[in-house]
Amino acid sequence: MIQLNYRDVRPFYEQIKDEIRRMVIAGAVETDEKLPSVRELAARLTINPNTIQRAYRELEQEGYIYRVRGKGTYAAPQAQVQDERVRMLQQQYQQVVTELLYLNIPREELQRWMDELGQEVQHDTGQ
């Protein structure tokens, strides 16, 4: 399931979040599938349960998972995950573009960056 890379500079909770996000989006974890408990995953990864708790809390805020009190943590429905993620990314995009415009980066330059990124993504996805 989840493996930590001890050479990765990212904190463990970020690695866990990224891995669970990837699994939910890729369908490796089905909608409403129960995830390991905080204690279970902490024991499996031999890390502090607070690290898992933080990852789960942030994933819940991002809409990837949901909790049922007394029952456990589950993968959120795909449509909910995608809608919530798009909303969050739009907010981040708006903040970044706004800052770049305040830094007097020309709109044409921003458009060129978008075009280049679009070409890279198409190449990476084989489209």
Strand content of the residues, in percent? 5-15%
How is the main sheet built? 2 strands, antiparallel
> Biggest sheet, strands in spatial order?
1-2
- Structural class category: mainly alpha
Q: Report how far the terminal alpha carbons are from each other.
A: 29 Å
Rg on CA atoms, Å: 18 Å
Q: Tally the beta strands.
A: 2
The ordered string of helix (H) and strand (E) elements is HHHEEHH
Explain this structure to me?
By secondary structure, the protein is mainly alpha-helical. The protein has five helices and two strands. The protein has helices spanning 12-26, 38-45, 49-62, 78-102, 107-125; strands spanning 65-68, 72-75. Strands 1-2 form a two-stranded antiparallel sheet. Helix 1 (12-26) packs across helix 3 and helix 2 (38-45) crosses helix 3. The longest helix has 25 residues, at 78-102. The chain is elongated, with a radius of gyration of 18 Å.
Summarize the structure.
With 127 residues, the chain is mostly helical. It has helices spanning 12-26, 38-45, 49-62, 78-102, 107-125, and strands at residues 65-68, 72-75. The longest helix has 25 residues, at 78-102.
List the keywords.
single chain, 127 residues, mainly alpha, two-stranded antiparallel ribbon, 2 strands
Which helices and strands appear, and what pairs or packs with what?
Blueprint: H1 12-26, H2 38-45, H3 49-62, E1 65-68, E2 72-75, H4 78-102, H5 107-125
Antiparallel strand pairs: 1-2
Helix pairs in contact: 1-3, 2-3
